[in-house]
Amino acid sequence: xxxxxxxxxxxxxxLSVSRPETETVSVGIWVNTGSAYxxxxxxxVSHFVEHMVFKGTAKRNALQISEDIENVGGQTNAYTSxxxxxxxxxxxxxxxxxxxxxxxxxxxxxxxNADEMAKEKEVVIQxxxxxxxxxxxxxxxxxxxxxxxxxxxGMSILGPEATIRSFNSExxxxxxxxNYAAENIVVSAVGNLDHQKFVNMVKNRMxxxxxxxxxxxxKQVYTGGEFIKxxxxxxxxxxxxFPGLKYQDEKYxxxxxxxxxxxxxMSSRLFQEIREKRGLVYTVYSFxxxxxxxxxxxxxxxxxxxxxxxxISVVGEELxxxxxxxxxxxxxxxxxxxxxxxxxxxxxxxxxxxxxxxRQHLIHKRxxxxxxxVSRIDSVSKQDVQNMARQIFSGKLAYTLLGxxxxxxxxxxxxxxxxx
Length: 420
Description:
Layout lengths: L3 E4 L5 E6 L5 E8 L13 H8 L9 H9 L4 E6 L4 E8 L3 H13 L5 H20 L1 H13 L13 H6 L2 H11 L5 E7 L3 H12 L18 E6 L5 E8 L8 H12 L5 H9 L5 E8 L4 E9 L4 H17 L4 H18 L3 H15 L5 H9 L3 H12 L4 E6 L7 H8 L2
Parallel strand pairs: 2-6, 7-11
Antiparallel strand pairs: 1-2, 3-5, 3-6, 4-5, 8-10, 8-11, 9-10
């Protein structure tokens, strides 16, 4: 896969991959900002900006933004995470310039109309309420808060309702002025396109974007701790967490492989032992989340409250096994194949490829060749996985539980169950 790359005078990076055999193009603008780069008093502003730019720009009102894309059969959307805000579209090949025009308009010329803002606040507040109504969703916000207490990385992406209601146009313009700049933005496209023509499309619309951000990110410090909340639910939701690895850690794939062996698929140890053999849960899995300067390893399950101690005991046994006893050649090879195939399958999608390329540039300042990724995965040994397990599971526990808390184990008890 040949990745074409250009940089405008203001530092904006433009990437493309040509696939002339296709009839479509996926294009997006990736901004290296999100809730982890917010101050507490404006928590939720990244996500609210993502909503509000679609409510009107200097060239289009909200309806025109939608119609301009949909009239030619295109699709557009956006999302906000803790460290990224993304605006993207997929169009027929001849409509790429229209997509670039609309997406660039969202980033460089939003109007933040007061009437539209009043309506969109209610929309976002309904989104917050919907999240809070779903215990299997909101428990992850509590978990993040527990793992990174009293810092932006621990704040929710949506923000609290009272804070959303306090926003005005000045809040949003000030945030974009400090957090949206060429140095932390990548424009990426994949499909039937000519790179230089694509560069010119972006240059004509985004060359005046400011060069530098003016915010200073707060440190990302894993704290661990305990959060237990009573709630009338059919299941009790439990998350067990440990300090993980940042994106650029040289052992990144050690942690990824560890998580996949432990709880990343139906053939994983936790799934087989806890669901298939014991029938304690419907859902159980592990994950290894990385951030710019830290990481979080977690294990999630939803189950009957009376089974929590039994569940934690079984998890503890599995952590001991993978840390101290064995990793088989069979499961290590299976997981390596799973990871490599998932990467290659993702690259068959133009939208996924555009995202992978953009995120690599924002995180690593370069595109990482597939053979380099494959080589790093293949180089991980059984001993590497065990060493990583010992490193992670000897870290401070983050324990989050939402549901029936009667007789639930306390922090010290859980630590004893999980001690490796």
